[in-house]
Amino acid sequence: MSKIVMSFFFVLTAFCSNLAWSNVDGARDAVIDVVDAFRKDIVADKTVLASNPALLEQRVNAILEDVVDFDDFSKKVMGKYYRRATAEQRVRFATVTKDTLLKTYGASLLELDANRINVLPLGPQGQGRETKVDVDFQMEAGGMLNISFYMEQSKAGKWMLSNVVINNINFGLTFRKQFAVMMEQNRNDIEAAISAWRDSLAKKS
Predict the structure, then answer these.
(1) Could you read off the pLDDT of 159-192 as tens digits, one per residue?
(2) Which residues contact 54 (CB under 8 A, 6 or more apart)?
(3) In whole angstroms, what is the distance from residue 163 CA to residue 132 CA?
């Protein structure tokens, strides 16, 4: 009897492991879809988009809106100050963050080599809810960007981008630290800090 129980246990464990890996593999599929959209809708059409920033921003938004919850991303950036912000301030912060990042990183996508974008096989994963998907982007002018997309499954089962690490720079953590500094510099005035945040991001665009 004990052998039967043990056999059942090992079969069940193997099944659950395969199921978990299958779910994790869905994170990579989601990233592949995003990368393919970058290649087809932006990089391949860079000549037109380079002279039309509004159209570029529109296309980047169309690609990211299904995989990025900018409200949630902004909440993470605000960190401990999120609870102190009014509903209006939260919306303003999220809007400023989204609009500026779309302009900034949309332009950088035009520098990619469409034929040299490689989504790597999934490597060992951590113990948290996030799944890391690494992508190598070759720049036309030379040089390589390694971007780690941290994907998290929503309650509805959809894979969403929760953070990005570019060449070992954790953007979620970096932004959170930057906003905390702005809060200090503006004597914990959230309204003033949001304005400073907007000006800071605009300088990078």
Answers:
(1) 999 888 888 888 888 889 989 999 999 999 999 9
(2) none
(3) 9
Q: How many angstroms separate the CA atoms of 120 and 146, rounded?
A: 10
pLDDT digits (tens, 9 = 90+) for 22-40: 477 889 999 999 999 988 9
